[in-house]
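call fold(seq) -> tokens
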Amino acid sequence: MSSRAVALRTCAPHGPTITLDTTDVERARAVVGEAYAPHTITVRGDPGRFRAVQASLSDGSVSWDELRYGTECDVVATAPLGRVHCVVQPIRGTVTVSGGRSSETLVPGRSVALDAEIEFRMHWEDGAAINGIRIDRAAFDAAVADIVGDDPVPPPRFLLRCPVSERDARLWQSGVQLLERSLRSSALREAGPLWWAELHRHLVGVLLATHPTESRNRSVPSGPAPRSAASRAVDYLHEHAGEPFSARALARASGTSVRSMQEAFRRELGTSPLQMLIRIRLAKARAELRAGDPAAVTVADVASRWGFGNLGRFSRRFREEFGELPSDVLRNCPKGQL
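ret:
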């Protein structure tokens, strides 16, 4: 059998694109196993049609894969994923995923999350291909802790079940599409760390909202926050607007719990901490545009620097906030005007 494996550094903004193209079962097992978990591959269909093809995009913490084997086969993990959580969804054909006593038959539009602690089994029908999203476990746990807001946070364990509604399934697909577009976008290759941090946080939030997990509820004491907590938090947001958002850090700075801080924002300011941060970043972007030289500064650069990866959405939100377009601010205001 012949095989070839090619490593390219082209598409992803923060990491390599690796393409595996091989007819060698052992080569496929080694390369795919490095990305996921050690496993065996048993070809059930025509051995002459076996061809493993894997294309991957990664920014370091999150990876997007396309994988196919060409013919019917069984893939059986011999160890848990360990380092990553993975979400599997067919692009075409049918794949049955099992773990413990649970099993789901997947077709395009249906997905399951494979917990990092599970040893999975997969039966690939002839011609099936999947889209796999791998999320680094440590980065995932940190994002969950920040989203939930209380430390320490028991990390959730995913159940091997599909999203319970069509709405949840569509929501996850939209998250995957956003990730793929972002990793492939030449315009976002140079986006600042704020954009990628917010994208990761968004993806983890969508994953938690759409894929079932074990219930690990616990009681979190939450007393009423003093009225000054919100104002202290706003001061912190102004000082740290150029850093990735952290609900826990914000709560510590305001001297209260995350839940109480969020209640204080709603009660006193009529908004959420994240929405307030977006408004602050918009204001700082406006100030930078007003002080900028149109010959040396672009709206796209300023938007990216303040965490807005989509220029169209940035312009719309900017206009809603200030009644003018960012391009007009840059073009019409003299250099140095504040």
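Residues 166-184 form the longest helix (19 residues).
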